[in-house]
């Protein structure tokens, strides 16, 4: 009785640790923190937790617990490979079904478009989710059944559809999307069941951890081929990566590096909302993430004869600061009366300084990384006497 209770407790811990990988994505959708912070922290907790759990089980001679872990890893890896293989014809038909995996990598690496390194990271994260789902299944169900495994696969996708998964990664919710995604998850569940049946059938042949490792290596090789094919076909044409953070402190603005926009963002970050994060789109694109900033529908924007910076300073009661007023005057001359800019030497020099910095750091389009360097330039200006 005591042994049975201990095994049930072990299942609970396996389920908990296995759930941490996908939890990072769910928390990202909830806007708790950036995806890279959540993914790295929770993956490390999962990996370390499972390794420590396995070592403890090995030292205590808990063969049933070790078998639970190895079978979940084995079956989860094989089911993930099958899940992706079944989608290859869809990808070759012109539908970028693997782009969410590419975006996992761009979010982890902090780049706008897929690179070979970001693809490796994205597919590694994808595999960690697939393996973790396998561990969660064997922890939930003592005896694998085809119907429980398929329902498990479909449930995973149903839960994801309750989140903004499709919207964040740019999938259109239509009949084709639902057919593809539910069909692939049904295959995941079916292969998960078959892999566990195979595992149980081969236990009499003294399966060892080396067999599991060999199976996972084969899965990695298979996924690498699929990833390379997807990267070759779609990497250059994917829209820019979603923002690394999609919580309440996210603002979306146009990517044109105008002085007024740059200064208003810097004032927001430095004096109003230190947690503020900025995401950039092409002018007049639809805003899918965050709150509008310095665009026609935004609260913080040019209002009549006031630049966005002036409006922000007035709104927040920051217009008594001499340095900020200098920046506000410069933005007014650039935004409202550009023909008078030449008559104000200080504003003209400051404009030139900011434009040169923007050209050097961002070129023609702003992104999250280059804007941080522009903020540093404005920090230097603010600290100057």
Q: What brief labels describe this structure?
A:
three-stranded parallel beta sheet, 2 domains, mainly alpha, 3% strand, 385 residues, elongated, 3 strands
Give your account of this protein's structure:
It is a single chain. The chain has 2 domains: 2-237, no CATH class; 250-383, no CATH class. The protein has helices at 2-29, 35-59, 63-85, 88-92, 99-109, 116-140, 146-161, 165-168, 175-202, 209-234, 259-272, 308-316, 322-335, 345-361, 368-383, and strands at 250-254, 277-281, 291-292. The protein is mainly alpha-helical and 385 residues long. It has a 3-stranded parallel beta sheet with strand order 2-1-3, covered by helices on one side. The longest helix has 28 residues, at 2-29. The mean pLDDT is 91. α3 packs antiparallel against α9 (175-202), α11 (259-272) runs parallel beside α12 (308-316) and α14 runs antiparallel to α15. It has 15 helices and 3 strands. α11 links the parallel β1 (250-254) and β2.
Terminal Cα separation, in Å? 76 Å
**In total, how many domains does the architecture comprise?**
2
Number of helices: 15
Task: Please write the string of helix (H) and strand (E) elements.
Answer: HHHHHHHHHHEHEEHHHH
Beta-strand content bin: under 5%
Return the average pLDDT rounded to an integer. 91
